[in-house]
Each structure stands twice: as structure tokens, then as C-alpha cells.
Design goal:
This protein is an alpha+beta fold. Helix content is 65%, strand content 6%. It has a four-stranded antiparallel beta sheet. The protein has a four-stranded antiparallel beta sheet with strand order 6-5-4-8.
Length: 358
């Protein structure tokens, strides 16, 4: 709320009333939870993932008050989870009603799944830390570990490391793309002439959406097109069109060539890394079947992580130039193949090499 009310107070061009400003602040909070905001009949869906992460951290901070100071019994954790998640969802509905005092309103059903997930993550993260001070929670942690298959536990680390490598390589490509088209990005920023306050808010909004851009870049490296309304950027060609004057969109290339297919090296390389890391998670004398199972499970963990990020990072503005922004549907189908097959091949090659060493 602070940046919104600061802009309303300091920007001389602001003409909205205080209740409209309050509604905008709540709308931003709702968007971070995957809420559907309706303004003049136009539905906006856009979750800046850094802002969503801030909501998760705030939920962790709030969840600490739900845990008692004395030793916590394991059965109490379910009651805390249900109470906190329920209270968070109810609070989201109340905020949605308050936002309706302005010119926008929020679909109530869109403030159920997102807030519930954020609140559940807050409780889970707090419980993970509280287990150090609660023997009951520590015992419950051991029960969960024992109930999880050994091969799945071994694959989680490799899968999450693969997702981190995917994000790092996507960030590198994104930085190169923005740096290459920096003059055009700056030209769009100057053409908007947002002023000091508006310019700071515009830059802040784009920084908050940086993980969204990384997710979209990761989808593009799979060979699937990136879609921004009528604009589609593939690897063998692109469909031009008109885009809103958002500075970061100026970094989109105006043409593509055969060099674009080199981006496939990113998911394939991540798959190879997953297969190599999966082999290290097991002993040298483990069977080929066990190593292939861990490699496939780790690649599946990376794939599911990508799917969740793609679902949360996509955006849409109905009846506008950005009806859908995000990876094409082909990315959802191609990504598992580009990750699983190299991971299996690398795990098999590593096993063959270790079994034939003298």
C-alpha cells in the first residue's frame, strides 16, 4: 500500500479519490495471489512473482503468532493449518469487498486457491523451522521422511538443483536480450514520460515481474513460441503486432533466425545435469533401474516446478492487446521430453562407465 499511496500523494498528475487509491492497493495484493481484477468490464490477471514471494514471507511472519510458545504437539499442527489458511482466505474475501468501494472489483472465487496456497506455504515454512524446538514436530518430520520412498527423496535435491540451473541460464539469456535492445527499452521509457514518481513505480513493477520473465524465457528455450497477445515469437519465425508501451517489452526481438534453435541447448543441458546429479545421489553399485528411476523422478520434479511457475507467471487482459502473455501450450508438452530423455541417457552412460571401470 505504501508505494500506491505515496504516488497518489506525491504525483501532481494524480486525480483519483482515496477510496480508488485504496482499491488499487488491494488490487495489487489480489493480483499477487492470482486474483482476477475487473475494471470497467476488463479482467486483469497478472501475478508479479516477486510480490507473490513477499506475500509468502509475510504469511510466514504472520504464521509465527499461530504457534504456541510452549512445546507444540504434532496433532495441533493440523488445527493450526486449517485455522490459519481459513482465516487468510476469509481476510482475502474481506479485502475484496473493500476493494469494491472503488471503480474495480475482484472475483471472490479467484481469492480462494491463491491465498490458500500462500497461507499453507507460510504455515509449512514456519513448522519446518519450529521442528528444531519441538520434539513432537521433529518426530513427525521423521515419520514423513520414512513414509517417502528413498529414491524419491534422492531425486528431490537433483530436481530442485536442475530447476535452479534452468533459472540461472534463463536469467543469463534475459540479461543478454535486454542489454542488446537497451536503447529501445530506454526509448519506450522516455516516450511514456511518467515523471519521477511514476517512473520509479514503473521500474519497480518491472522488477517485481522479473521471475515472470525468467519463466517465459525458460518456456521459449524449449522451442515453443512466446506469445504476447497477437505477437508470437517462435524459433523459425514470428507474428508481428502491436504491444502496449511497457519498456521491458522493447527487449523483444524484431526478427529471429536459425540461431534461435540454439536455445534448445538450455533444457537439454539441464537434463544432462539432472542425470549427472542423480547418479551422484546413489552409490556406484546401485542398479541401473534405480539410477534411471532417480533421474526420471528428478526430471519430473524440475518439470512440475516449471509448470507451476508457468501457471502462476502467465498474464491476461481481456479485450485488449494482451489477452494472453506466456509460453505457448507446446512448452508444456515438450519440456518433459527435453528434460527426461537427456537425464535418462546421462544416467545410463554414467552407470555404464562406472560398471566398466577397472
Amino acid at each position: 500500500m505504501v508505494p500506491v499511496f505515496a504516488a497518489w500523494t506525491l504525483d501532481a498528475q494524480s486525480t483519483s479519490s482515496w477510496n480508488d487509491t485504496l482499491g488499487v492497493a488491494i488490487d495489487l495484493w489480489a493480483l499477487a495471489h492470482r486474483g482476477h481484477v475487473v475494471v470497467d468490464g476488463i479482467t486483469v490477471v497478472f501475478s508479479p512473482l516477486l510480490l507473490t514471494l513477499g506475500c509468502v514471507l509475510a504469511a510466514c511472519f504472520g504464521a509465527r503468532a499461530a504457534f504456541p510458545d510452549e512445546r507444540l504437539r504434532a496433532p495441533d499442527l493440523r488445527a493450526i493449518m486449517l485455522a490459519y489458511v481459513g482465516g487468510y482466505v476469509v481476510a482475502a474475501q474481506v479485502l475484496g469487498i473493500v476493494a469494491g468501494l472503488g471503480h474495480s472489483h475482484i472475483h471472490w472465487w479467484s481469492l480462494i486457491v491463491g491465498p490458500a496456497l500462500v497461507a499453507a506455504l507460510g504455515v509449512a515454512w514456519t513448522a519446518w523451522h519450529e521442528r528444531k524446538h519441538s520434539p513432537e514436530l521433529a518426530a513427525l518430520d521423521e515419520v514423513v521422511v520414512e513414509a517417502t520412498p528413498l529414491l524419491l527423496r534422492r531425486s528431490l535435491s537433483a530436481g530442485l538443483r536442475g530447476a535452479g540451473l534452468f533459472a540461472a541460464l534463463s536469467l543469463l539469456l534475459l540479461v543478454v536480450l535486454i542489454a542488446w535492445h537497451a536503447p529501445r527499452v530506454w526509448a519506450v521509457q522516455q516516450a511514456l514520460a511518467p515523471g519521477v514518481v511514476g517512473g520509479c513505480l514503473l521500474v519497480l513493477a518491472q522488477v517485481m515481474a522479473l521471475p515472470n520473465l525468467l519463466a517465459h524465457m525458460a518456456g521459449w528455450t524449449t522451442g515453443a513460441p512466446f506469445e504476447a497477445g497477437a505477437v508470437s515469437i517462435g524459433h523459425s519465425g514470428m507474428t508481428p503486432g502491436t504491444l502496449p508501451m511497457v519498456p521491458v517489452l522493447g527487449a523483444l526481438p524484431d526478427h529471429v533466425g536459425p540461431w534461435a534453435w540454439a536455445a534448445l541447448a538450455v533444457p537439454i543441458g539441464v537434463g544432462v545435469f539432472i542425470g549427472w546429479a542423480s547418479g551422484r545421489a546413489l552409490t556406484r553399485f546401485a542398479s541401473l533401474r534405480a539410477k534411471l528411476t532417480v533421474a526420471a523422478s528428478a526430471a519430473a520434479v524440475t518439470t512440475v516446478t516449471l509448470w507451476l511457475l508457468w501457471w502462476f507467471s502467465t498474464a491476461s487482459v481481456s479485450r485488449g492487446l494482451l489477452e494472453y502473455v506466456g509460453p505457448s501450450w507446446q512448452a508444456w508438452l515438450v519440456a518433459p521430453l527435453l528434460l527426461v530423455l537427456p537425464a535418462l541417457a546421462t544416467a545410463a552412460a554414467r552407470h555404464w562407465r562406472s560398471s566398466h571401470q577397472t
